[in-house]
Write a structure and sequence with these properties.
By secondary structure, the chain is α/β, with parallel strands linked by helices. Helices cover 33% and strands 32% of the residues. The chain contains six helices and nine strands. A five-stranded mixed barrel has the order 2-3-6-7-9. It has a two-stranded antiparallel ribbon with strand order 4-5. Helix 1 (14-19) links the parallel strand 1 (5-10) and strand 2 (25-34). The radius of gyration is 20 Å and the shape is globular. The relative contact order is 0.20.
């Protein structure tokens, strides 16, 4: 299979999301929103329920599970790092958020579950997998901090809108057509489980025989 790499402008449009396939690589330019907070996702749901006002416009945004640390230096905001966090923690919240805010690109590391994949397919949204441990590479792609929301929260829980250039590459791990590389890997592992257990049992018996 030929590896396809796309350099796309963000926030990602629905049409661009639909053009991508699982396994494609994406390099990001433009504006993204990042947060690493479970309390942040719970707060966003309250905004959808009308219990709280949003600190910034998130409709159609591209929102990623990337932890960040910002500080103010001589009247301007400075970003110290950007690093992926595990998306599976947010599985219970992502379907409503993707549908409610009409997101067409989300991501982080570790993937999302089947219910989330269904929401992505319904809305026309992709999940991008970022390099775990790629803090330095990812941080260098940030060109400007545009906006910080919910400054009353811990730094990495805040919503931070960033301008980026050449962020990535990230892998389309769940596409907008319902294909999930995570589900495929899990299925392959389940199929091999019996063979692996039989092999381990054989090795244990050999070890016991050699000791006796």
């Amino acid at each position: 299979m030929t590896l396809r790499t796309h350099q796309l402008n963000f926030p990602l449009s629905r049409s661009d999301a639909l053009s991508l396939r699982a396994g494609d690589q994406v390099v990001l330019d433009g504006e993204i929103v990042v947060t690493a907070g479970l309390p942040t996702h719970q707060r966003l749901l309250r905004c959808l329920d009308g219990e709280e006002l949003l600190p910034m416009d998130l409709r159609g945004a591209s929102v990623f599970h990337l932890g960040s640390f910002t500080r103010e230096v001589e009247g301007r905001l400075e970003l110290l790092y950007l690093n992926p966090t595990t998306s599976t923690r947010f599985n219970p919240h992502m379907p409503r958020l993707v549908r409610g805010f009409d997101w067409h690109a989300v991501g982080g590391k570790g993937g999302l579950d089947t219910a989330c994949s269904q929401a992505l397919q319904e809305v026309g949204c992709v999940y991008l997998s970022f390099l775990g441990g790629g803090c330095t590479l990812l941080s260098q792609a940030v060109t400007e901090i545009l906006e910080v929301g919910w400054s009353d929260m811990l730094t990495h829980y805040r919503l931070v809108r960033l301008r980026v250039k050449d962020l990535g590459p990230a892998t389309v791990a769940i596409d907008a057509h319902g294909r999930s590389l995570y589900d495929e890997e899990h299925a392959a592992a389940r199929q091999q489980r019996g063979q692996i257990l039989d092999h381990l049992a054989t090795q244990r018996n050999k070890a016991r025989q050699s000791i006796s």
